[in-house]
Amino acid sequence: MLIACLLFSVLVLIGAIWVVILPNLFRAALSLGLVLLGIAALFIVLRAEFLAFVQILIYVGAILTLVIFAIMLTGKRAVAEVPRPAASRHSIPAMAASLALFIALVSTTSSLRGLEIMAEPPTLTTLGQQLVTTFILPFEVISLLFVIAIVGAIVLASSR
Amino acid sequence: MTMILLWLSAALFSLGVYGLLTRRHAIGLLLAVELMLNAAALNFVLFSRTFGQAHAQIFALFIIALAACEAVVGLAIILSLFRSTKTVLADDVNLLKG
Fold it and tell me: Are B17 and A98 in contact (CB under 8 A)?
């Protein structure tokens, strides 16, 4: 299990680096697909099978397809991103900022060292029951948000 | 295993911030935001496994749903922006600048 965890972590990390540094946006989107699949595999390692399938269905199946459609719809300039003097000018401060953030996050969580798995994974039955009892209000709000997002997207993207 | 995944999610979040700061293409920014959302979801699922709580998985589910909403609306905005100004670079959008 540790080996699978390490393997998928390396896969996700490489994919994530590609997502942010590849100049070709189409390839960046495809490597985002790699990252999403790797995270779904990590969910399976963590015994959250339902979330893994939701991740594959929604992220890889819907969101990634939408992103690739948008990249293609916005034309040739989108795919071959212009050579970027401005970006290379900003890349060193950006790298410093994100490195500082990484160090801060790691040092914040370092007090959790030695934390081990101490309980059985929650079952799908509990998940479903809690979703419609304890979390019924957030569930309804999310449904409403979905409707609003869909209507808003149609209004924004309609060609008139 | 817990620490490896915690570091991985910290690294994913930092890479998302890096992408957000360096990308010029609007869809590239959206990809970086997806990375950051995934880092948060991974953390939720990790702690759900550690403490055996179903709550955390429900919140990971909500994160995925919110990410879907965000991607849909963001891409619609980018498409309508491309239609009206013929650009998708975030730097070139200065319609309100005097």
Answer: yes
Beta bridge partner(s), residue B25? B89
Domain extents for chain B? 2-85
SS3 call for B89 = strand
Give contacts of B33 with chain A, Cβ < 8 Å: none
- A19 Cβ partners below 8 Å, 6+ apart? A28, A31, A32, A35, B15, B19, B31, B32, B35
Q: At what angle do helices B2-22 and A85-109 cross, to 10 degrees?
A: 150
Q: Is A119 on the interface with B (CB under 8 A)?
A: yes
pLDDT tens digits, one per residue of A20-73 = 998 888 999 999 999 999 999 999 999 889 999 999 999 999 999 999 998 888
pTM: 0.89
- Domain B2-85: CATH architecture, name and number where available: Orthogonal Bundle (1.10)
Residue A114 dihedral angles phi and psi, to the nearest 5°:
90, 0
What is the sign of the dihedral through the CA atoms of A23, B36, B75 and A88? negative
- Using CB atoms within 10 Å of the CB of residue A137, give its burial: 0 to 12 exposed, 13 to 18 middle, 19+ buried: exposed
The answer to whether B23 contacts A43, with C-beta atoms less than 8 Å apart, is: no
Residue numbers in A near B66 (CB within 8 A): 142, 145
- What ipTM was predicted for this assembly? 0.90
